[in-house]
Automatic annotation (TrEMBL):
Annotated protein name in UniProt: Uncharacterized protein
InterPro entries listed in its UniProt record: Methyltransf_16, METTL2/6/8-like, SAM-dependent_MTases_sf
Family: Belongs to the methyltransferase superfamily. METL family.
Native species: Solanum stoloniferum
UniProt-listed GO biological process terms: methylation
Pfam families referenced in this protein's UniProt entry, alphabetically: Methyltransf_16
Keywords of this entry: Methyltransferase, Transferase
GO MF annotation list: RNA methyltransferase activity; S-adenosylmethionine-dependent methyltransferase activity
Database matches in CDD domains: AdoMet_MTases
């Protein structure tokens, strides 16, 4: 932060000012992060998606600017109650708003912080308490709701359409708009890089899924791997544990697929380890799936074991005499907080053997195979994806 302020000083006109607005300490989102033990240091947290959140106290903010040669001209602590009547939820949001000018850097004690209550009770004397009717239902609450509008005056739509190109296919994908993504709990409402990369791999190597039954775990709202697979596979079941994600996924399928491809793709809720969900997937294909795919689904340590347990239940039993068609679990991620030893230990606990990986192939043993290398062999993928950024693990069921 100090470095950033020093850079701002260098480029600011003599009479220029810095307009500052950011989350304040005590904001509802901070309360939630605190209760989930995602704290890094004072008022600093890591969100579920790996991005960071900092909450400013008045004192910290003024000192920070003062120490870097700015005077505070005015500063406010803003309060806003966001009410969600359908969920009977009242959310108290707080942010700091200030104007700084280059100066002596000693204004800290001189400007008096004002407090603004925005909303119905503008001159409410006390800081409102957080009222959360149903905390058990907390996972369903999108705390970003209304916030971008209230805090920054942005009235952006909640969703935006991305043009996604995967090798020879292009898709229009509806995702949660950027203004909302960083405070949203669900990671399924956006498109992650590994799905984009894996979809290109599937598009360039149809034999991975051709004529086979495919299950995608944690497919997210975009479902592009499933959409590519559905062109060549006999059956594709695209699943996710999050119902909002599945709603958006269904919209994306309708936007991009037509019969007959659409007919070979089924979407279904599947929360890893949930017995009822697993049983209802079995009713769609009681022989088990030839190929199971998961992109960017191994970033939460606690979810890795249920993921493998679910894959174990739903993969087709191997007949032992198949070569190219041995049932496979293909996981892929771009590096971000992925704990490879936990993945490998869960794999072996649930009877999966790592037979190949990318980019660092296994050192040659009697059981290692050169499967993934062949997907990249003609070099055509290099031009459309940074293949070294993609980590692929290829498992066989023992
Ligand atoms: C980082 S996103 C990746 C989405 C998509 N595969 C992609 O790469 O764009 C992780 C996905 O896994 C889903 N997920 C996380 N935990 C899950 C669980 N326990 N059961 C089922 N789905 C889960 C999330 O809803 C989300 O859609």
């Amino acid at each position: 932060m100090p470095l950033m302020l020093q850079n701002i000083r260098k480029v600011l006109k003599k009479d220029g000012c810095v307009l500052f607005r950011d989350y304040a300490t005590g904001d509802l989102a901070q309360e939630r992060l605190t209760s989930k033990e995602q704290k890094i240091s004072d008022n600093f947290y890591v969100r579920g998606d790996g991005t960071r959140a900092f909450y400013f106290s008045d004192e910290f903010l003024i000192n920070l600017f003062n120490e870097n040669g700015f005077d505070a001209e005015e500063h406010f602590l803003c309060f806003k109650q966001v009410e969600n009547r359908s969920r009977e939820l009242v959310m108290n949001r707080r942010w700091v708003q200030a104007v700084f000018r280059v100066g002596s850097g000693i204004s800290g004690g001189k400007t008096e912080s004002k407090v603004k209550f925005l909303g119905k009770d503008n001159d409410k004397p006390e800081i409102p308490k957080i009222i959360l009717e149903d905390s058990a239902n907390e996972t369903e609450v999108d705390i970003s709701e209304g916030m971008a509008l209230e805090m920054f005056g942005i009235s952006s739509p909640k969703e935006e359409i991305l043009d996604v190109i995967s090798k020879d296919y292009s898709f229009k994908i509806k995702v949660l708009s950027k203004e909302y993504q960083h405070t949203c709990k669900s990671t399924g409402l956006m498109l992650w890089e590994s799905a984009r990369l894996m979809a290109s791999v599937l598009a360039a190597n149809q034999t991975i899924v051709s004529g086979r039954s495919v299950l995608e775990l944690g497919c997210g709202c975009a479902g592009i791997c499933s959409m590519v697979a559905a062109r060549f596979a006999n059956l594709v079941v695209a699943t996710d544990g999050d119902t909002k994600t599945l709603d958006l996924l269904n919209q994306n399928l309708a936007l991009n697929l037509h019969v007959p491809t659409l007919a070979s793709l089924i979407t279904k809720k599947l929360e890893w380890g949930n017995r009822d969900d697993v049983e209802s997937i079995k009713t769609l294909n009681d022989r088990g799936f030839d190929v199971i795919i998961g992109t960017d689904v191994t970033y939460i340590a606690e979810a890795i074991a249920p993921l493998f347990a679910t894959a174990k239940e739903l993969i087709r039993p191997s007949r032992g005499d198949e070569e190219d068609s041995t049932p496979a679990l293909i996981l892929c991620h771009v590096f971000r907080r992925v704990d490879e030893p936990s993945i490998l230990s869960a794999a072996s606990e649930f009877g999966f053997k790592l037979v190949d990986r990318w980019p660092n192939a296994l050192t040659s043993t009697s059981t290692s195979q050169n499967i993934i290398q062949s997907w990249f062999s003609d070099g055509s993928l290099e031009t459309c994806i940074p293949t070294t950024a993609l980590n692929i693990q290829y498992f066989h069921k023992l």
